[in-house]
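INTERNAL AUDIT FORM
Audit reference: QA-55
Scope: verify that the stored structure record matches its stored sequence.
Auditor: D.O.
Record contents follow.
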Amino acid sequence: MVTGDHPITAQAIAYKVGILWTKTRNDMEADNLKHGRSPGDRLWENPDDALAIVVPGNTISVDTSQGERSEASEPFGRRAYELRAKRAASEASSKRSEASY
C-alpha cells in the first residue's frame, strides 16, 4: 500500500482496511523498549520476526530494483510536505534553466 500520509497514519489505515493484522517491526521495538525487555527476556519480541513493516517514503531509494518483493506486508507513507518541497525545488530549477536562455 502506498499513501501520501505520515507513516503513523499509513499504518493506521493499513490496520483499518485489513492489510496489517499483526505487530510491525516498529511496534515490537517500541514495546520492548517501553517494557525494558531485551534479548533473552521471556517476553522479548524479536523485531526480525515481524511479518510487517512501515517504510517512510524518504527512506526509499530511487534505485531500488523493480521486481523484488518482500514476504512481509509493506505499507508506507510519504510526508506530503516532502513531496511539495521536491516539486517546488524542481519547478524553481526549471524556471532558472528557462531564464538562462
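Auditor finding: record pair retrieved intact. Helices lie at 7-16, 25-34, 80-99.
Action required: none
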